[in-house]
Amino acid sequence: MIRNLNQVNFQGFGTVPPERNQRDQKFDAPAGEWQLSQERAELFRSDSDVWIAPGTGMSVLSVSRDGENFQHFYLDKLVSVRGGVTFGLEAFMGEAAVRVFYAQPPRLVGSRSVDPQQVDRQLRVECIYTFFYQEKEQGFVFPGESHPMAELTYVDQGELHSVADGQDLLLKQGDLVIYGPDQWHMQYAQIGVAPRYVTLSFTVSGVELTPLLNRKFTATQSMVGILKYMLREQEKADLFSNDILISELNLLLLLLLRETVNPKGGKLQTANAIHSENEIIRRAQQYVSAHIREKLSVPLVARQVDVSPSYLTALFHKNLQISPGEYIRRVKLQESKQMIRENNLNFTEIAAALQYSTVHHFSRQFKEKFGITPSEYAKSVR
Q: What is the C-alpha to C-alpha distance for residues 177 and 169, in angstroms, rounded to an integer?
């Protein structure tokens, strides 16, 4: 990838004078104009500094301290390459030339083929075939299947057993698993457990998903945020929704691969900060789930996780793109669905159990969220 040429990025290779002073730069030696190629770059090294200025066209400056590992910079300003640094010049697009100033001509030390410098990607999600939010009855059993697509399952509420290749994984809230193409798998829930989970079937190219297959992952807040965003995007179903869904799934798989292949990647301080934020949000979510039939408020939940209400709100907006108050409302409404499916309470009793002020308030919020009334939902699941 071509980098921006500035003093910070270029430190260790030479000097980039402030742009306001570049016109005033004076040289003892005359400039030589070098015509550049798009196919091959000659490599040079000098014992003293070499000044290079952009000429006609678009050009790239490649530099290396060891002569093997190069960094590439877009040459749009005057730069001084330090003595002892290996450098090469190439045309970026079309024809290009640069002006070179030196006390002694730099030595030709080799050449290199010019590689395309554009950013490309390794992993490509080619298609998404199915994307469902599953709400299952207590103790359900899915007898199993295999298909040519890969499949991702993420548990949003409850617990789910995942069986593949003779291994039974217990997925709890926040866990996910990926099945490979043509990998037989089945799923079931324990008696008394009615799980809610997301399933996605898809195909990819460019990268093998083998490191991810049939392993239990605990989704980070970023991953959960991606899945929630995808569910909201699916509801929009406009001209760009499918492209956005594919892009978001691509990002989710890349984050999983990075965690698997390079679990210690990234800066330690950043990783620690992210872990701390994830832990606060996870504890808040667990408290909400465990006390969903009680009267909940943002200050109450914040006290339980030892942070201020404003900080908890900031974390939820940053990682989940919703407020903690909205999160509580959504979880209560999801819980009401399960209570309706269980068919043990009427709507007035459900509203009271979930701490709604009136059954009318409950019914109004239910319809705003799901587009149907509690009565209509009850008819659809019984």
A: 9
